Give the backbone structure.
Amino acid sequence: MSAHFSLAGQVALVTGASRGLGAAIAIGLAEAGADVAVHGNSRSPEATCARVRALGRSALPLVGDLGQPGTPDRLVAETLAGLKRLDLLVNNAGTIRRAAAVETADEDWQAVLDVNLSAVFRLCRAAARHMLASGSGGRIVSIASLLSFQGGIRVPAYAAAKHGVAALTKALSNEWAAAGVNVNAVAPGYMKTDNTEALRADPERSRQILERIPAGRWGEPEDVVGAVVFLASPAAAYVHGHVLAVDGGWLGR
């Protein structure tokens, strides 16, 4: 592997990595040479850890509800205790609640913002405290969405949170770039994950989505991996505050 894209000797924390995008990202980072702290919420991260270890890298399983305010600080502390450093944070964990705006309950609105935005800020803050104090910088990559740019349908809280992730990426980059902490985001398009299961199961909605994607297919979790590895790598040393769309051409349509 080119040194420009090598993560050898690095330690990453990936949230929501028991399956889907997070699992693919954790494995991709391990393939690039990183040891990985693998977080799971309602599902065990052990299967992903096993795949990381099979690549000859260290894996640390972590669990915790990111809807709870204390979880982000604990995950960073446990990563530092277990793997002795933290060079890369990937904020992947997320949740979605689908309903018309007038039917959206307060608790559903709050639950989505707690996990998709507040926990992202708290994780960034905890990781950056270490990265800034170490003097060696670091990388933070958050998983945004097409709905960081658009409003979507029947997902008002998710759209608000993902717009917030894009703004937070830029705001934190403005504060930390000069200290060598790169803060960026990846905005996946319509991917085959749990979050889109309802859309893929709806023949009409699935057809409407596919008709707009120039690539002509739903994205796979592996489609996001290269973008995350790039932003985590030395190749992206001068990339700050950017939201990189990986969407099959959706936004250009």
Observations:
- The radius of gyration is 17 Å.
